[in-house]
Amino acid sequence: MIGPFATLRRSLYGAGILRQESLPRPVISVGNLSVGGTGKTPHVQFLASWLTETGVKVAVLSRGYGRKSRGVVWVSRGDGPAVTAEYGGDEPVLLAALLPGVPVLAGESRAEAGRECLRSRDVDVFLLDDGFQHLSLGRDADILLVDATCVLGNMRTLPFGPLRESPETARRADALVITKCAGLSQGEKAAAAVPFEADRPRAYTRMVARAVVDRFGRETSLPRDGEEVVAFSGLAHNGQFADTLRTSGFAVRKFFSFRDHYRYRRADLERIASAAGGAPVLTTEKDLVRLSGTLPFDLKAIRIGVEFLSGWEDLSRLILERLGKAVES
Description:
Elements: H1 3-14, E1 27-32, H2 40-53, E2 58-62, E3 73-76, H3 85-88, H4 90-98, E4 104-106, H5 110-118, E5 125-129, E6 141-147, E7 175-179, H6 184-192, E8 202-213, E9 228-234, H7 238-247, E10 251-258, H8 266-276, E11 281-284, H9 285-288, E12 299-310, H10 312-328
């Protein structure tokens, strides 16, 4: 649903012509306006971890883009992934691996997934991964992410630009987070280009390499200083991952780019192995969950995290206020 159709659909929900479902627990949505990666999954992980640390019981609801299953799938009951990425979706399986103790469910209907979760789990709040356009479920707060490196592109909707909806839709968000900032000044410049209400919270984040992990998610040693690596990824913006590696000090001999959610074939892996010639091979954790079986090289993944440059106090206050109001009502 893109462009004028998305605008019409949002208007129909706003007018009550299309019925919006609700869940008996607060719902916080994290999403974006553009196609591709703004860092939704790392931000959902950050928020889920923070809420869990404060004693709030969290569950994550996701569509599970590209999965071969239908209906509601329990990706995790809080003890790690119970299904493969092919069955549960890349992002839900990754979140399941990164969020011990947090249920993760995938479903076309997030309302149905939430109800399924509540049948067996005590939950205080639901986090929607990529929920800005999922209007069939009501929410208590909409957090909109915008990539500082490309902002809203040419400000046009698909197929003439990168946007799922009109840029004016940003005004409907309760908070704006500018992601992938090289610095605060870049983030503030990007925020100025987004049509967003001035009195609402704005925050600025950057993506940082937290650790190197093996195929089982265990932290492992870094390549030796000066040692060359070969890397690959299948993301919306592969160049950003390549840049992260280089700015983190990795000597990247060769980088292989694949489309987002790419399912790797044996021939792809053999090509990477040939280029590596025994050198370490690095990828993202999102790509790691799509790989199974024996690999023809020693593979490690970069664990990417979120670091707030500014605005976390206002954003966290908004979330806690919305949780409190939802509980009171």
